[in-house]
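S.,

Sequence below, as promised.
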Amino acid sequence: MITYYDDRSVQVTSTAVRVDGRSYPLAELGMVWHRRGNRSWRVLAGRGAIGAALAGPLVAAVLGIGLAVWLHRSAVVTIAIVGASVLVGLGIGPLADVLFEHLDRSYARGSRELEMWARWRGRPVRLLHTGDALRFGQIYRAVQRAMEGNQPARRQNAIGTSGSSPRPRSRP
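The prediction came back faster than expected:
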């Protein structure tokens, strides 16, 4: 038996797909497809907040420099205001790495709910429901590989995208 994917709630092997304690033998699975849900506004708002946190100190630095030039004070006061503004702008450096990492992980997880469906014993059944796009892609690809590995024994089973009928490929 070959294991294609394994985590705490999903296991894909060369014989079955197990999700949250339920087992679906590959020999009983027909076509497998996926559906995307609506965008999560909470995730998009979180990305916007990270962008604002990145841009805030830079905007403050630019405004400080503009204020220093606009006030027409002595050279010492102007240099002090410009220096403080530059320090505020540079203060984002260490924080930017952490914020960019959170932003990158947000895009890896995705902003939509994803579902994997299969025809099991003649009826559609939802195998998986998750908001983590990276994990979903790994599981979906594992199911593809498992079904391709069993293909000579079961020619009627196929995997398609978004419920479309699978088509033969022209490449070898």
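The longest helix spans residues 41-71.

Coffee later?
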